[in-house]
Amino acid sequence: MSLYHEAASVLDTARKKSIPLKSIIYNKKDWKSDPKTLFALSTEAAKWSEVLSEVLERSGVLKIEKQLTPTLALVLTHDLFLSKRGIALPATHGLTTSISKHKARLSAELTKARLRRGCATLEQLRAKINEHAANGAAVDGDSEGKPSSVRHPRWIRINTLKTTLEEQLKSTFADYEQVRALSKVISPSASGKRLHVDEHVPNLIAIPASTELTTSQAYKNGHLILQDKASCFPAYLLDPKAGDGDVIDACAAPGNKTTHLAAVLHDNAASAGASSGHGRSKIIACEKDATRSLTLQKMAKLADGERIIHIKAKQDFMKLDPAAKEFANVTALLLDPSCSGSGIVGRDEGGITVHLPSATATEDAVQTKAGKKRKRAGSTAKPAPAPPPPATQETVVEEEAPTTEDTEAKLQTRLANLSGFQLRLLQRAMAFPAAKRITYSTCSIHPEENEHVVVKALQSPIAAEKGWRIMRRSEQVEGMRKWHRRGWREAARSALNEDGEGSIDWNEIAEGCIRCEKGSEDGTMGFFVAGFVWDVGEMGTNGHDAHGTGTVQDDTEEEWSGFDE
User: How high is the pLDDT of residue 394?
Assistant: First the structure.
């Protein structure tokens, strides 16, 4: 029972406050429902909301079942017809009967809605809705939704802890057409079984966004992991080698980057011929939130990363002591802290579109909305103008760009708080005595969280004392070295303080930084990543060896509650 009430609550919150579904669900700790199940239902109900709201309005169910809110009726109707297991409640439960006793009428209206959209079967309608959702277009009865020129593909990382790219190409994707150009997967006309093997990140493929793989056995077994291409950059750039030392993932949940780290470590060990598979190196995964720690544990187990990944559940990275004996062998750190999430595809400050049925909509009003300006054959008379639909007939929340000084001021305050924490996190990572490599990443497009943080970290006393510098483009792994989008030079230059002019090459910093742009022909979300290396040739400002013990301020402030990718 709680699942449907909670899903309705999530959708209502998302509509009213323009907050992303993922953030609403995973930033709250006391859901009674499984967060993954709740997220799946909320997402799918939102995707189908235009069709289902039309079905509910035409059926008149809400006029009869007064106890059902429009949102609750929406999620129940979704599972009644579109979930393989139906409504996840006993047949005698009040919520089940309130919808199922109208099944015949609802089914008839769903069939009409399907035919109005030119779909012969429900599966065809499902494919059309998935395709339009990927394009960010509407799916109305007159097919007026127009896809964008570029759409986001479905990126799939082959989990080499359990399988190989070659094995998956011969099995799961045996009947797919392999194409060399990504454009053939992300173009508006792309559909069907096409596959592109990525040229930058090993063991990564792209398929059309409308292709559903979550029901495949390979996905259920953890052989395939859905992970955006840009999200794969941090672990690949860090490139940990077996036997070189331990790795810390500072903000690990939900676990995609953590398991990717484990896979890279495993693959490097195999390439080096290490008999143990991963040498003596391990990944120390920190996650301070209890609920997200459980998600991390499940992810590590499913991916078969438990041999390599040592999870520190409910552990705040900022409270670790870099000088502690257990971290004496930590040579690399991956930092992917909370951020504004402004680069996530479809987020755009959280706006989503959810259509809700009206309890008072008349059959004529619904007919007018769905079948605009239909004429009888041979009729020459102009139809009478349709009355405007009731204000409550449909609720749509869409992205709105900041238009007031107050909104801009709030954004700047939020970015200042986020970047302040991100800088402290990076400085803490630089204090680990044996550390030689660090990657820092965000799913943000704002320079305040990206180039500005990088420059300020490099200008900090801990970086000077330890001898940290930017990982130059020429030093990066091949795929990242070839990546064409680099950091913003003006953003790097503007972040320098007066003492930094002349002492830091901001062009080198910008060239070392990596950016991804959402909505581009690259098919990625908006993303930023930079690598840092300990330069053994540098000397600390105090005259000590560049990698001496050093100190860092003990900052145990609460982490900013931003958005996690």
Answer: 29
Instruction: Note whether 523 and 152 are within 8 A (CB).
Output: yes
Neighbours of 149 (CB within 10 A): 11
Under DSSP, is residue 247 helix (H, G, I), strand (E, B) or coil?
Answer: strand
b or e along 219-250 (b: 16 or more beta carbons within 10 Å of the residue's beta carbon)?
beebbbbebbbbbbbbbbbbbbbbebbbbbbb
- Give the residue among 338, 339, 319, 252 at the shortest CA–CA distance from 553: 319
Q: Exposure string (b/e) for 354-376, b if CB count within 10 Å is 16 or more?
A: bbbbbbebeeebbebbbeeeeee
Q: CA-CA distance, 468 to 428, in Å (whole number)? A: 13
Alpha carbon distances (Å) from 288 to 54, 275, 294, 560: 43, 34, 11, 12
One-letter amino acid of 412: Q
Annotated catalytic residue within 232, 286, 339, 443: 443
Which residues have a Cβ under 8 Å from the Cβ of 87 and sit 6 or more positions away? 4, 76, 79, 80, 95, 96, 99, 100
Residues pairing with 285 in the sheet = 249, 311
Q: Quick one: which H or E segment has residue 84?
A: none
Burial class, 155, CB count within 10 angstroms (exposed 0-12 / middle 13-18 / buried 19+): buried
Q: Under 8 Å CB-to-CB from 426, ≥6 apart: which residues? A: 335, 438, 440, 453, 457, 532
Which tokens belong to 24? 């609403």
Cis (ω within 30 of 0) for the bond into 433?
Answer: no
What own/partner pairs with CB < 8 Å and gap ≥ 24 does 50-53 have? 50/138, 50/139, 50/140, 50/355, 51/110, 51/113, 51/117, 51/125, 51/129, 51/139, 52/77, 52/78, 52/357, 53/355, 53/356, 53/357, 53/394
Contact status, residue 471 vs residue 514, Cβ threshold 8 Å: no
d(CA 532, CA 427): 11
- Please tell me what DSSP assigns to residue 390: P
Residue stretches of the chain with pLDDT short of 70: 1, 17-19, 131-150, 188-191, 274-279, 346-353, 359-407, 497-502, 536-565
pTM above 0.85, yes or no: no
Looking at the DSSP bridge assignments, the partners of residue 534 are 468
Helix (H, G, I), strand (E, B) or coil at 531: strand
Position 376 scores a pLDDT of: 39
Per-residue model confidence (pLDDT) at position 279: 55
The amino acid sitting at 112 is K
At how many degrees (to 10) do helices 103-116 and 70-82 cross? Answer: 80
Q: Which two tokens stand for residue 425?
A: 């996190």
Task: Collect all residues with Cβ–Cβ distance below 8 Å to 451 and sequence separation of at least 6.
Answer: 487, 488, 491, 492, 495, 509, 510, 513, 528
CA 217/CA 220 separation, integer angstroms: 5
Give catalytic status of residue 443 as yes or no: yes
Give me the pLDDT at residue 80, please: 94
Distance of alpha carbon 227 from alpha carbon 20, whole angstroms: 18
